[in-house]
């Protein structure tokens, strides 16, 4: 027994050659609108219509051309006697029209097939030429409707026979239809002019059985490749359409092409679940195509809970071939959509891209028939013989033995069934090499498809029906817009009902009617016996203006230099259009915009001009930006930006906006690839950050003031800044508001604009911790409005952050990293429980860093902490080679080699040197360079007197005098001894210098113990040694100064 919920089974038929589509539908009335091929006979020459029926008693079928009231012919049909009705070749002006009959109203084209006795039969069109083939099957009465989307696949071939066609046939007089929603750059044929129709929309009026054909000739303009795909066709009276590519191709760099066509159903006969069966093509040709009929349609593949794509009304998505179960004929794929959508299948009969076809994949359900009787002459296609076969999709509850296949040779032996990933309700069979009339009998529901191939030509299709689908159409009673809107199931009575809103089950909504309270998409799931079925979707909107603005980012955390992608979406949930709609999004400092791409309107930063947005319409803007390097000293920074919208109407904000995005940017100050938040050595100087400084903090809120929108007795707002984080009400430190509105707030005023690194919110802990769920935290340098309108807080905020589920959460911390004065905590309206706002404490934290040299660079980021010109690595290790000689980091390289935690490989991380033994490491103690105020002066000495050379300096711990005996080319240190004293002081004494020392040069090397990076060398002083002059007589000896 089938227990699936709305298994709207889609069988995508298998093509083993260049092919079109076939999707048989029993009906007593069929319409075949004409179509257009790019060039006569280049897609189809020979053509025939194949009719078959399960009826055993013969009956008459009348075939009418255009508006004629006289049958073109009458045939006799029965199960045992299928009929092939041959048509004229090429552009016969019946099924295929010439250039002159394109873009104008026609009265003599198209076919109508009627069984006057009401008997039901299948109608299948098959056409071919020497290289191409295609087929189309009428959907009978189920093809009749008032709203469609132009379907097919993107047509990329550059061949001059490529064309995209849409045929329309009216069923009653005075029918007006409008085609719109295509790429405005598309150009459609008007008789001999391939670009004669260039307007953005077209409206025409047809009488009963009159027809109209659109052609988008591929090589006319590039927009004709796919700009027509998903175009909206709406009429005021029932019509029937057919569409396809005659010819079409998958490669823009090739002339490869083939023919493909099919007849779709109106949007109220679509579904949400599909099974595709793969053809024999390659990755380019084997691709399902999903076309949305409603905005925000999610597409899921093979049971995945993550959408492979989300598309809007009129957009399409090509599902990659890699999602098939196997990359060979008979592989299957399970696809579901969140809203009703068209499903087409591109597939091929061979691995060559010249063999590509198109199938409309129709929704079915577990009420489909248990037999197909029969597929006529499976080997015949307008005069050529095919190699034929079938595929079957069957209920997994039906034993394989209960499914019996017969062909012209009798009962056929089946292969084993193939399972389908993502569903346990269906299985598939692939059975080739059949002949004659083929039938399938089963004890459970089956969908049967057939295929046929001859060289490069092939046809394919499936036999399953809309005729047994339940009538579960919805209508609106009461007000046409909210409030006061009631949804009601019209049609037959079912065993049970379950209503869904935007794809989510609505608890307790199990009646035939449902009163909607929120705008959105609704459908009902009904049950009849063991089978479940989903109704069509119905949209409900507000009477008052309501524009929803949302903004998201593609991640929540980034590194400097990363690319960030923002997506803004705007939706009109009101019944009336929003006009002159403009969205403004000023990106915050810290990012550089690269591009902005809107789905509608124009974008010039910071303004997205949309114009008019109709009911239910959603448009989006994609902004791609690069994150700049963080200029602050924080380990992490934040980017917060808030978008806003304006329009002619006053937005009631019934649907809450989410216009702000908060993301964290991680700093990597030393560019070593390890984020500062986890890096143990943020500047790679070989000193642990914790050794360089223990970071403190200041709560700036303690000196501020607090107010609230209302006050619960005993819950004064001042309690959020009393320094007590106790979250228990009995502790007397919990602030609380009344539940007057759904957007109550508490605001903290810091007293002045101050830089805040982090905000901390301490929750109530004795109960009610979930009341903060979904609340917003706003920050601003200007005062917030006194009212409780959430949007007003958004408009004033420079920072906005939304809390998640706070149940059981004691503390919420997040970076702000900006200058602010006011902090507001406000309920969002999506509140849990009552509308009370309870809070234990609000803290505005400023980090207090160590900054030895007061240069605004914290010690853990400063490679010269004491600003003495000597790198910390050298001072900490007391090693002049510690920095490798190529930069201030420890070791060689910038950055040097590091470990996983950010520490420098090879660094010992020993206790930093303290040359002064004063308890302050040298790297944090400014050791200024010795300063010489008086350089050594030249010295003249008379033998045998002593000489003296002096130096005057400051910031000097040690001296070392040196001498040069070769005129200054080389110097050597002087030691204490018989020739010198004071060699390590500021005063060098030369002891009884000899004449040999005349002309020696002396200099001093000065050092500071707290500055290991080097020494200061004085200027040289020259020694002049002279003999004393002696005059002697008999009485006295006189020494005479030579000067």
UniProtKB/TrEMBL annotation:
SMART domains: FTP. It comes from Aureicoccus marinus. Residues 1-24 form the signal peptide. Residues 680-844 form the F5/8 type C domain. Keywords: Calcium, Disulfide bond, Lectin, Metal-binding, Signal. PANTHER family: F5_8 TYPE C DOMAIN-CONTAINING PROTEIN (PTHR45713:SF6), FTP DOMAIN-CONTAINING PROTEIN (PTHR45713). Coiled coil: none annotated. It comes from the Bacteria. One of its GO terms (biological process) is regulation of cellular defense response. The keyword Hydrolase does not apply. Belongs to the fucolectin family. This is F5/8 type C domain-containing protein. GO terms for molecular function: fucose binding; metal ion binding. Pfam families: DUF11 (PF01345), F5_F8_type_C (PF00754), IgGFc_binding (PF17517). Acts as a defensive agent. Recognizes blood group fucosylated oligosaccharides including A, B, H and Lewis B-type antigens. Does not recognize Lewis A antigen and has low affinity for monovalent haptens. Residues 885-906 are annotated as: Disordered. Homotrimer. InterPro entries: BG_Antigen-Binding_Lectin (IPR051941), DUF11_rpt (IPR047589), FA58C (IPR000421), FTP1 (IPR006585), Galactose-bd-like_sf (IPR008979), IgGFc-bd_N (IPR035234), OmcB-like_DUF11 (IPR001434). The keyword Metal-binding applies.
